[in-house]
Amino acid sequence: QGELVESGGGLVQPGGSLRLSCAASGFIFNIYDMGWYRQAPGKQREMVATISSGAGDSTKYADSVKGRFTISRDNAKNTVYLQMSSLKPEDTAVYYCKREPRIYIEAAWGQGTQVTVSS
After folding, report:
1. Which of 9, 22, 28, 81 sits at a 20 to 30 Å CA gap from 52?
2. Residue 63 to residues 20, 27, 46: CA-CA distances in angstroms?
């Protein structure tokens, strides 16, 4: 089934930076696309960024984070990262790591990590 454990969330001032990490275990990490999603209070969960399997040559970003967030992966460490810069109060949410689904294999989610952007 696999397990995903996020870390790195916290309280940061507007304009600040954070790096989220997602440690994966229990599955062959490098063959899966991975993603970061977020859910703010009262809102639906939304895609933030995704990265392709293997070398991670293909990435996608939500328009709201383009140019500010960077997704990356380290297959040797079975970890996917989200570097967040120029943070805004509207980035406040619980951030979730996701193993994207493959044929016959459903998606998997981490437990989430809270990011709060406030002065």
Report:
1. 9
2. 19, 31, 11
Return mean pLDDT, the chain: 96
Q: How far is CA 104 from the centre of its chain?
A: 23
Per-residue pLDDT tens digits for 19-77: 999 999 999 999 999 999 999 999 999 999 999 999 999 999 999 999 999 999 999 99
Q: Give Cα 17 distance to the centre of its chain.
A: 14
Amino acid in position 68: R
Other Cβ atoms closer than 10 A to 6: 22
Decide: helix, strand or coil at residue 54.
Answer: coil
